[in-house]
């Protein structure tokens, strides 16, 4: 019974503490180490499952991102990338969790910066689609922060210039790596709207 309690405490700590899980993994690679001798046999076979579960917890903890990045998160789910993404983000998530003064806005900036770099390094078409949609949603979020500023298009009424549009308000220029028409189609048609239901934040 005591051995089971010990194993449970190790697993619980590994789920919540990424650095501890990493140390366990490193100890398991050296079967002759003192650290490995203190750990119960078979614990290493569970580490990959523990890390996946930690990634799932991190994903749920970031449900507040759905307010601004619903299409991006839907695509991560559709392309089965979400656990890989949050698995890679675990060290930063662990650090954020320890910093009690960090706001949701700060965490959003850290995560989106990470995700842009993560996706940019993946040349797979699905990753590039997610990257471009993320850039679009980042641009929309930035524009929405300029509250009270009209972004409507105003038309000049002078003769011969009546068909020339003039920008009234703010614009956001974003470099895409794919055809913007493709991204526009995905966004406008909301092909993944069945996934849009905002999850509850835990």
The SSE order reads HHHHHHHHEEH
Low-confidence stretches: 30-34, 192-196
Q: CA-to-CA gap between the ends?
A: 32 Å
**Class from secondary-structure proportions:** mainly alpha
Structural shape: elongated
Mean pLDDT: 74
Main sheet, how many strands, which sense, barrel? 2 strands, antiparallel
Number of helices: 9
Level of helix content?
Answer: 55-70%
Beta-strand portion reads: under 5%
| Structure summary, number of beta strands | 2
Biggest sheet strand order reads 1-2
Estimated radius of gyration: 23 Å
List keywords for this structure.
202 residues; mainly alpha; 9 helices; 61% helix; 2% strand; elongated
Written account of the structure:
With 202 residues, the chain is mainly α. 61% of the residues lie in helices and 2% in strands. It is built from 9 helices and 2 strands, in the order H-H-H-H-H-H-H-H-E-E-H. The protein has helices at residues 2-16, 18-28, 34-38, 47-61, 66-78, 82-98, 104-120, 125-144, 180-189; strands spanning 154-155, 165-166. The protein has a two-stranded antiparallel ribbon with strand order 1-2. Helix 5 runs antiparallel to helix 8 and helix 7 packs antiparallel against helix 8. The model is unreliable at 30-34 and 192-196 (pLDDT under 50).
């Amino acid at each position: 019974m005591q051995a089971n309690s010990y194993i449970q405490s190790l697993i619980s700590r590994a789920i919540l503490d990424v650095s501890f899980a990493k140390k366990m993994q490193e100890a398991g690679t050296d079967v002759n180490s003192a650290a490995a001798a203190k750990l119960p046999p078979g614990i290493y076979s569970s580490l990959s499952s523990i890390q996946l579960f930690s990634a799932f917890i991190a994903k749920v903890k970031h449900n507040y991102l759905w307010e601004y990045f619903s299409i991006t998160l839907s695509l991560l789910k559709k392309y089965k990338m979400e656990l890989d993404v949050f698995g890679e983000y675990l060290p930063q998530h662990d650090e954020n969790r320890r910093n009690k003064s960090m706001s949701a806005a700060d965490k959003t900036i850290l995560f989106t910066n990470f995700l842009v770099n993560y996706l940019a390094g993946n040349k797979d078409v699905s990753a590039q689609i997610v990257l471009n949609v993320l850039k679009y949603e980042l641009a929309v979020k930035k524009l929405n922060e300029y509250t009270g500023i009209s972004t409507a298009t105003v038309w000049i009424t002078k003769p011969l210039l009546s068909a020339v549009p003039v920008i009234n308000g703010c614009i956001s220029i974003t470099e895409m790596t794919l055809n913007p028409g493709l991204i526009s189609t995905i966004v406008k048609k909301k092909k993944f709207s069945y996934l849009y239901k905002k999850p509850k934040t835990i």
